[in-house]
Amino acid sequence: MSLLQDLNLVLGFIDIPVETGVFSDVPPDEYLVITPMSDRLDLFADNASCMSISEARLSLFTKKNYIKHVKELTKVLQAGEMTITDRQYVGYENDTKFHHYAIDVMKEYETEE
Amino acid sequence: MAKATMKMPDDFLKKLSKLGDKTDEIVSKVLEAGGKVALDKVQSNLKGVIGKETKEESRSSGELVSSLGISPMKIDRNGDFNVNVGFNEPRSDGGVNAKIANVLEYGKSGQPPKPFLKPAKSATRKACIETMISELDKEIRKL
Fold it and tell me: What is the pTM of this model?
């Protein structure tokens, strides 16, 4: 499994359209964008890495109250055994009327043989 | 009753005393060395994202990259010594570098984020610690 696969799986429980990288359609009133951030190797033994650490940022855009969705997202991400490394209200966009909230997640995977 | 007295070597005590006197100077050098590692990574990440996949032709002037730097050492409210990697303000056009950096880092509706700070933080954590340990060791040996 990869972080993107896991994220798409757990975010399926939330009723918000999700895309990776950029939202290609005309944006609805609420949507999520996943941006992969880093993918590094860790925990070395016998000249080989035993673990990979993947990080991604979830950007929630909503014209409604964002608090309910942030709570839901936090719950499903933690249930999916992901570590939330940061949660931040980025701001209200005057031009688009969207509230923007960012959640950074990280998950460790055993390196596949 | 038998009595034993343990004494530290004079040289060692003198070095400890010197270390105490020079704490601020040494900590500043150590933090600067660690900050330099983070700064290099942030700079290279930033160069990699500026002007990349823009809808229109990039109008980058290079001012954001050149304004990146390390702050002098300061003590925070918890009493910890810190240096910060950040941007010099303001821009030559009166704008704010941090605002532009924030839009790049987090994106906005219709503009995908191009994170450069967070990945640099994660990627350089170990290297920063190792650099600071070796710099501290070097400074202590000089005493």
Answer: 0.84
